[in-house]
Amino acid sequence: MKTTISQVSKYVGQEVVIGAWLANKRSSGKIAFLQLRDGSGFIQGVVVKEEVGEEIFQKAKSITQETSLYVTGIVREDERSPFGYELTVTNVDVISESVDFPITPKQHGTDFLMDNRHLWLRSKRQHAVMKIRNEIIRATYEFFHENGFTKVDPPILTGSAPEGTTELFATKYFDEDAYLSQSGQLYMEAAAMALGKVFSFGPTFRAEKSKTRRHLIEFWMIEPEMAFCDHEENLVVQENYVSYLVQSVLKNCKLELTTLGRDISKLENIQAPFPRITYDDAIKFLHEKGFDDIEWGDDFGAPHETAIAESFDKPVFITHYPTKIKAFYMKPDPKRDDVVLCADLIAPEGYGEIIGGSQRIDDFALLEERYKEHDLTSDAYKWYLELRKYGSVPHSGFGLGLERTVAWISGVEHVRETIPFPRLLNRLYP
User: Fold this and answer.
1) Is 163 in contact with 327 (CB distance < 8 Å)?
2) Which domains does the chain have, with CATH numbers?
3) What is the DSSP string of 151-215?
4) Which pLDDT score, from 0 to 100, does residue 166 have?
5) Model pTM?
6) Across the chain, what does the average pLDDT equal?
């Protein structure tokens, strides 16, 4: 019976055939232990000389790291294994030999591992991170489907900057200028006016010259947008969504979290509702903690976000930022126009902002005024203003950064490990 490692629990006591690669091996006298992987998981194959004979035993002992092979064996339950099963090998057939695989079980530097990212992905740790990333993606589709959202795909090539910033990758679009999208939000607002509740999931690009552990040049965003939705309702969707992601990973990625050494007690507590603190109170809090470098009207940096997050055991919303440091489309607080109806969601344990969201301006005259203030005179923004002209409604949305969320939930330090092939300030290879 041909099967995969992830499915061997169905075949306890039976002989199966698994296509695999040799991740590692060791031998002790007349027994060889093969650490096998097939993409679906890892399992130990035990080769006993007395049971398989000299020829097969010597073949098993001579297999080199990352050689591909078909392994035949009997599935056994094994309580000592984190996976719970092992394979008593009866035969091995080499498919393709691997010679001098560069990533050995010894320690390697980060630059070396990044240069060999195409091979580093095969390691047990990277496998676990990618499985958690996949579960977060799966749970995302499930959550929004169950809550009545429609998936919409905004364009990657755009004629304008959604945030009105200069951190854009420019390209030529035949005889006009175009940019790689840094957010699909503006297009999602148009989609929400047609479909009510929508979400997108796709790549975004920021030409930001940052080298921190939280930043990538190319990353993936989940961006929901909701018609007839105010600021408070928006926060409820966000906290329910993040709670859903964490609980899904806890349920379906126990082995991967164990592989990464993640303290799951810190994740088990992640249930809605989440605490909230206003920008005003956050400034006061930081001053009390000795952060004299920040004043009202400044944006928060990583140390500030971390200090605030350390006071809570769940993600925390920082709400009502100053109007002048936020995007042009955010709706002012009706009670005071110097702040907007927005929130950043800060993850615990120093992982920083994972969500930015707001209620959007729905008044035509006010948005037109913002256009003038931000010098958005280009015809590229005309269509966005028109959304407020034909049946405008209160609407809100947010964007969740996938890689930062994966880093936080999996407990890895740097976002470069949370995407298959990271694009960093000085890295475009492989």
Assistant:
1) yes
2) 2-96 (2.40.50.140), 118-417 (3.30.930.10)
3) E----SEESS-TT--S---EEEETTEEEEE-S--HHHHHHHHHHHSEEEEEEEEE------STT-
4) 63
5) 0.96
6) 96
